[in-house]
């Protein structure tokens, strides 16, 4: 099959100059640059953008003209490039530079840094790697953290670090991620695939065939503003269609969420408030209703699933706790009237129903359970594999549901060693400890070297880690329970952070290396997420600012210290890598999708493929469950799992169950002391912590210079809090200041502070007041269960009070205090 390609025009002048390099710049290109400036196209998590570059500076940034739904966040990009928080040159923590592994580690975070040269910095980096490998071996080094590196396939900074450090020696790595840790662990046992990172039924199929869409704990219009690769925002168009269909009475959409979401406000869905963290009780009562009213699909359960009887005995109260999971049982837990629960079950069974789950609801204690229940309800409805029916766990992410073109996309810089090569320190002896740990357990690892935990059927032994290297991630935003973390960090003799901005991670590091931003390098990227819409050229806008370097240059410099720079770079320059990556993609698509020469591509900016075909998830399984068996142990949907049962865990058993949380609002544990549930969802106006530093943009949402905390009028009034007040939010783990935003989008007892707010404690002491409003100052750091050991960030209770007196200034931004030794 050959598909016509559409090449989008424009932006040619800028592109050509980037390709040729400075020495070959033509006179006309230079002239264009000097007067009116040049518009250059590049890609980003926030979509394709065009930047006006004048006199070597970015003067203006606007969304790519063909972006159908640009995000407001584009307004924040310029403020990221030019920002007082940029890391200008390599720096070392004052106490550490003096005393290295004998330095006082309790002063980490006091923000005193000494400027050093790149040569000194890379020598120190290398010396520390040597010292750790020689003293402790690979179990002494943790370099496995990952995060939302800026876009661009070649410059993917995580790969640069893994390859560069990996050439020197082995180290402790992580498995899983913060996004979907519980979901990606449970669903392969239940439905044979992580589901969270898999293509879903095409939106046009859903919108055409579904009678009811249940948006369960999901806010796609907020979360689809960004993508893992260059976002096209094609998927956002479907929400206009959804809105129109609801208005025309052709579609019913119900949002099950303790908050009225951005998506709901756009499409006008029915709001179904449920008490936080109680979805499983609600779902068990739905299952009870479906079964006892004969609304379930017996035939589907017989043909496609295993283990229903056992689950049913639990629901009917004939086994285990002996409690029948009636709507009357669930109502006081989940806060939904028994009759409304029954209605809900009947609506779902009354027509074609598509369940769409977000990820937040599995980022809580026992986060596996609501996901498992989601599949069971869909199986009881018997619509899995039908167009507009069944269950999805991914339609809010990176263009999932936009029909996929099927084209091959560019690959990233190789993170592994070249074939047949071994690291300088080829030691694979981890001293009896595990070489891979579940990602969200690294603070427990630091606090309990030699300690053991269960994980997904295996025992993990925590290594004795002494050094950590972080790049493309910000653990002092992404991990839970700041004060526990501060203590754990004292275990580390050396922390190296590579970033372009002075994040809290850099402020708690010993050696800080300035990478440049993606706008200061040439690259290419997938255009669109799972849609594989095309390939985009990422034209460098300006040269690296200050003394910053690309991650490629940084690790070329590090590997040079042990004589392996050539192998690291393969003797190729940035542009040679970009071109080679493009050519590899072009060959992979040969005969299927035409792609122009590299030179043409670079000039044109975007190669777009024809839209893919509509597709229905699990249709093949429905068609023939023997030939197209699922990846579960049995090949069928496992409503009960013998494999999980054999692990013998008390917090994730043979089938999903309602389990109480260590902290739960609305009458649950700890709610006497801390009555309010804090959810730390993903920000509408940031990508995690990225862009928080962008001052002008932050001013559009901050409240008296603090991160907003959204709360209901009832909770505000009960505490004498008014919209715009500074409040103190606290629990036994920590305290922070935030700015009150009072809105009836939030149910009473439910508040939100978006994750990614920059941590800014008043001082470096344990328990210090955070002046800006990082919710992870308050969140709990426990594993979701022994199965996944995932983050439980959304299991968190707090109390709030109006802050009286003079609020301390925000300390999060603007970089370190420079001192000299
Ligand atoms: N309470 C709570 N916590 C959460 C979550 C939650 O819902 N609630 N969500 C979790 C989830 S799902 C996620 S994915 C994580 C996100 O956690 P992270 O991925 O750690 O968050 P980011 O803010 O994107 O951090 C990326 C860092 O990399 C830097 N960076 C970007 N590009 C480059 C580059 O090219 N080179 C270098 N050297 N550095 C670069 C950025 O400046 C930034 O500091 O947070 C998790 N934490
Ligand atoms: N703008 C923007 N978009 C992003 C990101 C970003 O940082 N900014 N990050 C990206 C990444 S890395 C990820 S992992 C995804 C995250 O995607 P998700 O985890 O799905 O997103 P969240 O915004 O955290 O939460 C979605 C909804 O879940 C609801 N919710 C939370 N807890 C419960 C509960 O107990 N029960 C019910 N019924 N509802 C609940 C919240 O109220 C919210 O409306 O987003 C991606 N998209
Ligand atoms: Mo994530």
TrEMBL record:
One of its GO terms (biological process) is anaerobic respiration. It holds the Pfam family Molybdopterin. InterPro entries: Asp_de-COase-like_dom_sf, BisC, CT_DMSOR/BSOR/TMAOR, Molybdopterin_N, MoPterin_dinucl-bd_dom, Mopterin_OxRdtase, Mopterin_OxRdtase_prok_CS, Prok_Mopterin_Oxidored. Its EC number is 1.7.2.3. One of its GO terms (molecular function) is molybdenum ion binding. Residues 42-82 form the Molybdopterin oxidoreductase N-terminal domain. Belongs to the prokaryotic molybdopterin-containing oxidoreductase family. This is trimethylamine-N-oxide reductase. It comes from Shimia isoporae.
């Amino acid at each position: 099959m050959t598909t016509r390609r559409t090449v989008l025009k424009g932006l040619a002048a800028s592109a050509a100059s980037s390709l040729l390099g400075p020495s070959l710049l033509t006179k006309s290109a230079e002239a264009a640059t000097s007067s009116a400036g040049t518009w250059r196209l590049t890609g980003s998590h926030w979509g394709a953008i065009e930047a006006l570059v004048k006199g070597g500076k970015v003067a203006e940034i606007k969304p790519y003209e063909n972006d159908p739904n640009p995000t407001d966040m584009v307004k924040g990009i310029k403020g990221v490039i030019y920002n007082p928080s940029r890391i200008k040159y390599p720096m070392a923590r004052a106490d550490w530079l003096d005393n290295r592994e004998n330095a006082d580690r309790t002063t980490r975070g006091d923000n005193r840094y000494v400027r050093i040269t790149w040569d000194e910095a890379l020598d120190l980096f290398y010396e520390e790697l040597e010292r750790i490998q020689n003293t402790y071996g690979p179990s002494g080094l943790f370099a496995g953290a990952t995060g939302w590196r800026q876009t661009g396939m070649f410059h993917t900074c995580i790969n640069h670090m893994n390859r560069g450090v990996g050439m020197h020696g082995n180290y402790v790595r992580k498995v899983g991620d913060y996004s979907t840790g519980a979901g990606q662990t449970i669903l392969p046992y239940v439905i044979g695939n992580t589901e969270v990172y898999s293509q879903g039924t095409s939106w046009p199929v859903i919108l055409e065939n579904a009678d009811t869409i249940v948006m369960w704990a999901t806010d796609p219009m907020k979360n689809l503003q960004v993508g893992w690769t260059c976002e096209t925002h094609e998927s956002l168009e479907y929400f206009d269609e959804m809105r129109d269909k609801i208005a025309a009475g052709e579609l019913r959409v119900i949002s099950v969420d303790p908050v009225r979401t951005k998506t709901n406000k756009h499409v006008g869905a029915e709001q179904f408030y449920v008490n936080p963290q109680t979805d499983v009780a609600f779902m068990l009562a739905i299952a009870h209703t479906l079964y006892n009213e004969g609304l379930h699909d017996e035939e589907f359960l017989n043909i496609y699933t295993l283990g229903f009887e056992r689950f049913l005995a639990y629901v009917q109260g004939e086994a285990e706790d002996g409690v029948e999971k009636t709507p009357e049982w669930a109502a006081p837990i989940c806060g939904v009237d028994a009759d409304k629960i029954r209605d809900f079950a009947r609506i779902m069974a009354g027509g074609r129903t598509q369940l769409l789950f977000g990820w937040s609801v599995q980022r809580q204690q026992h986060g596996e359970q609501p996901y498992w229940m989601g599949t069971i309800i869909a199986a009881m409805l018997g619509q899995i594999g039908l167009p507009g029916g069944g269950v999805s766990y991914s339609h809010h992410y990176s263009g999932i549901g936009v029909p996929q073109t099927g084209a091959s996309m560019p690959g990233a810089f190789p993170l592994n060693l070249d074939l047949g090569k071994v690291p300088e320190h080829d030691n694979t002896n981890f001293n009896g400890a595990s070489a891979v740990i579940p990602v969200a357990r690294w603070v427990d690892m630091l606090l309990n070297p030699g300690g053991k935990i269960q994980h997904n059927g295996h025992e993990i032994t925590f290594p004795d880690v002494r050094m950590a290297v972080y790049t493309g991630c910000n653990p002092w935003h992404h991990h839970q329970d700041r004060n526990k973390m501060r203590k754990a960090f004292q275990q580390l003799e050396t922390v190296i952070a590579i970033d372009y901005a002075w994040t809290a991670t850099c402020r708690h590091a010993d050696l800080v290396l300035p990478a440049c931003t993606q706008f200061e390098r040439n690259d290419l990227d997938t255009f669109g997420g799972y849609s594989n819409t095309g390939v985009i050229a990422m034209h460098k806008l300006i040269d690296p600012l200050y003394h910053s370097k690309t991650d490629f240059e940084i690790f070329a410099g590090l590997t040079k210290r042990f004589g392996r720079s050539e192998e690291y770079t393969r003797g190729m320059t940035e542009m040679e890598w970009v071109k080679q990556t493009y050519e590899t993609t072009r060959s992979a698509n040969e005969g299927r999708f035409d792609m122009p020469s590299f030179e043409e591509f670079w000039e044109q900016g975007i190669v777009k493929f024809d839209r893919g075909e509509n597709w229905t998830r699990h249709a093949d399984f429905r068609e023939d469950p023997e030939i197209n068996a699922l990846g579960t142990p049995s090949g069928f949907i496992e409503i009960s799992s013998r494999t999980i049962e054999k692990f013998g865990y008390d917090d994730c058993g043979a089938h999903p169950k309602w389990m109480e949380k260590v902290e739960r609002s609305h009458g649950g544990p700890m709610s006497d002391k801390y009555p309010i549930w804090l959810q730390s969802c993903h920000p509408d106006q940031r990508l995690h912590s990225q862009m928080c530093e962008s001052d002008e943009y932050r001013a559009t949402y901050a409240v008296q210079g603090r991160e907003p905390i959204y709360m209901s009028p009832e909770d505000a009034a009960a505490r004498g809090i008014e919209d715009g007040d500074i409040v103190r939010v606290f629990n036994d783990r920590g305290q922070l200041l935030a700015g009150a935003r009072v809105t009836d989008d939030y149910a009473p007892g439910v508040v939100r502070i978006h994750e990614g707010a920059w941590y800014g404690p008043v001082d470096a002491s344990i328990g210090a007041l955070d002046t800006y409003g990082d919710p992870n100052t308050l969140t709990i750091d426990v594993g979701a269960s022994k199965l996944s050991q995932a983050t439980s960030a959304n299991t968190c209770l707090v109390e709030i009070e109006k802050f009286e007196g003079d609020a301390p200034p925000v300390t999060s931004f603007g970089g370190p205090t420079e001192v000299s030794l």
